[in-house]
Amino acid sequence: MLNPIWAGLILLALFSAALQAFSGADSQVLERMTQALIDCGKLGFELALGLTGMLCLWLGLLAIAEAAGLVAVLSKALRPLFSHLFPDVPKDHPAMGSMSLNIAANILGLDNAATPLGLKAMAQLQSLNPQPEQATRAQSLFLIINTASVTLLPVSVLTYRAQMGAAHPADVFLPLLLTSLSATVVGVIIAGVFLRLKLLHPVVLAYGALLIGLITLVSISLLGASAEHMQHISQLFSQGLLLLTVAIFIGAGLIKKVPVYEVFIHGAKEGFNTAVLLIPYLVAMFLAISLLRASGSLELMLNAVKTAVHFFGFDTRWVDALPTMILKSLSGSGARASMLDVMRVQGADSFAGRLVSIIQGSSETTFYVLTVYFGAVGIRRCGVALGCALAADVAAAVLGVVYCYGFFG
Hints:
0% strand
């Protein structure tokens, strides 16, 4: 999927630049394209280098949380819900534990732990599949929940915002969390309809009511408040929660007699390796997006959408986040590079800069998750899973715009 997207963006930029240069419409376009080609490598390297410290910090803390058993605690809390959401899976089947651990790891932002657990869970679900090439109801719903990806600690987004110079990197935390929770509810409801799941079971309704009640309570409490007040509340909430999380992680580690310093160092080393591994991906996607922007093609497309949006009387500031919204379902590295490009050009604290942060943190890369999870067990026909997952992505994009206007006006 990524090969044609990446090549297509570059070829589109080159074709557009050549057309403008030879027609005389823009005599400077080739110079801008050449400069963009030179700058993309330097930009990708410098950004990854700046991320190293924050990644070391958070991956070190998350390693302590994992060693202290906090993932297992969350897993136990999810099991009653999963036993009713996945009626085709026996309650004592190993897949139940693996799925619970996978979602718990995702909630805590433990991507390195979540993916292996997810693959293990999918393989265990495959053992119950009477048609190995066709996704079952359980496999489809599990995939949709993974693509919705509720994350209590959006470490990567906050790290990128800090690196890009945001005054308060965590000020998007509350709207991001609300967007992620709301999109997950939408995704599960849509999946329940198409997969014919009994979502009206008292246990499912209790969990759903708790989740929806939390979203409603926060929304009502902020109703009528000014954008400045909501931004202030989001900052206080996120800062307090992040510090509380650090205290819980360290405290739980000490209680469980985890060698917290050694475990932190081990996790921090993974953060350094992660930052290094990001460099080629960032350079590759910055190449495509920088050339597209330098050729004027990206601005031309966005202006066309803005014109249409303005014609219907709506505010157009959200349109600058449209490339990130589109790429989010297709390519994780592409969406990341698009987010960083928006923050670089418009500023991390601009409306578009905050919106792309919310979009980036509130959902997963649907096609990547589908390819990895289904491909690992040989599933070729995904049924309604893809459509439901994309519907959840659309919900995340729309709700992200709504919450961003609510918090940042």
